[in-house]
Amino acid sequence: MKVKTFVANSVQEGMQLIKRELGPEAMIIHSRKVRQKGLLGFLTPPKVEITAAIDSNRNFSSDEAKVLPKQWENELGELKAMVAQLVSKQQKQELQADGIFSSYLQKLRARGIEEKVAEAILIEAKKQYGANGTLKEEVLDLIVQKKMKEFLPTDKLPPKAKIVVFTGPTGVGKTTTLAKLAAHLSLYQNKQVGMITIDTYRIGAVEQLRTYAEITDIPIEVVMTPKEIEQALEKLSGADIILVDTAGRSANNSLQVRELTTFINRLPQAVIFLVLSVTTKTEDLRLIVDKFRTTGYNRLIFTKLDETSSFGAIINTTYATGLPVTYITTGQNVPDDLEEADAEKLVQLILKG
Ligand SMILES: Nc1nc2c(ncn2[C@@H]2O[C@H](COP(=O)(O)OP(=O)(O)O)[C@@H](O)[C@H]2O)c(=O)[nH]1
Ligand SMILES: [Mg+2]
Q1: Radius of gyration of the chain (CA)
Q2: For residue 71, what are the domain limits?
């Protein structure tokens, strides 16, 4: 068996190198993105490192070598997916066989982190920890925390955001969070805030936001049809930032989500928050994340952190969506119980409750 590692600018380029050097029968055994060391690594795009192996007892006739590449290319995508699965299965088995990692896996699972997410974190940690595992457990703790942070992107509200939409299931705290943010922006950042509510289903839901709007002296427009969005935006054109509330009757009604999407599509370049409660069951969260995808949400807010001591939902969702968390909320008080998300703090919460 001959094993060789190739570094290339793209997967395609890497595959060509492998094909040229090892022939079309080479098998990919591992691939990963790598950055160059030092300053150059920040300035240049990452490269791909592909390790391939070939049974060196096998000799190819040149005919065989000519016929295979085309077929190879057709199957490239499929093969890559298969190999990725194989690798991760092997990595999973390695994790389970390694005492310190298998007990860590249980620890992360007990903190409400889904199995595939816990495995992904630990596979990354294991790479850094080294194969021999002679390092102290405290060192592993630090490595795991670092890897968790990488799986937990956070991001501030862009200072130039003009339109900010709050979507998500009923009862998670969209209206309350919007009111908190509105107060923060107008009180602490001196911004002219406007509000739009497309709260057309629940009688009283409009009133809830209207009450906040009156207290804080923020103009509010109620929108019943997608067409009315433009008028509302026009009326609020003096505002620096417009916060848009949405509502539905039930959490899982796809018709309502579709209807909501037609409203959102009329809002140009919006920051669209998917608001989720950490108290929601893992399976339900998964459904919600999928159901609301059509709204084009691009950031996350987690609410009700004061109501549980299990926060795995946060990292499960950033893993599933790849999206950053912008805010967390920790109680019913407007405007106090709102915080900008901080990855370090979230990791500690997830691990320690
Ligand atoms: N404990 C707690 N309750 C919250 C939080 N955010 C919102 N709530 C409460 O959750 C309930 C539903 O909130 P609401 O804003 O009406 O949810 P919406 O249906 O998504 O708009 C209200 O009783 C809020 O006071 C939070 O961070 N912690
Ligand atoms: Mg509401």
Answers
A1: 25
A2: 2-87
What is the 269 CA–ligand 2 centroid distance (Å)? 22
Residues 231 and 132 placed together within one structural domain of the fold: no
Instruction: Report residues near ion ligand 2: CB below 5 Å.
Output: 174-175, 205, 247
Q: Are residues 79 and 102 in the same domain?
A: no
Instruction: For ligand 1, pick from 176, 279, 307, 336 the residue to mutate: most ligand atoms within 8 Å of CB.
Output: 176
pLDDT tens-digit readout, 155-170: 999 999 999 999 999 8
How many whole angstroms from 324 Cα to the centroid of ligand 2? 23
Q: Is 339 in the pocket of ligand 1 (CB under 6 A)?
A: no
| Residues 217-241: b if buried by 16+ CB within 10 A, e if exposed | ebbbbbbeebebbeebbeebeebeb
For residues 223 and 331, state if they share a domain: yes
| CATH code: domain of residue 298 | 3.40.50.300
DSSP state at residue 353: -
Q: What does the pLDDT read at residue 279?
A: 97
Within-domain flag for 232:
yes
Per the CB < 8 A criterion, the answer to whether 340 and 326 are in contact is yes
Contact between 159 and 182 (Cβ < 8 Å): no
Domain count, the chain: 3
Q: Is 176 in the pocket of ligand 1 (CB under 6 A)?
A: yes
Whether 156 is covered by a domain: the verdict is: no
pTM higher than 0.85: no
Count of helices and strands (H, E) across the chain: 13, 11
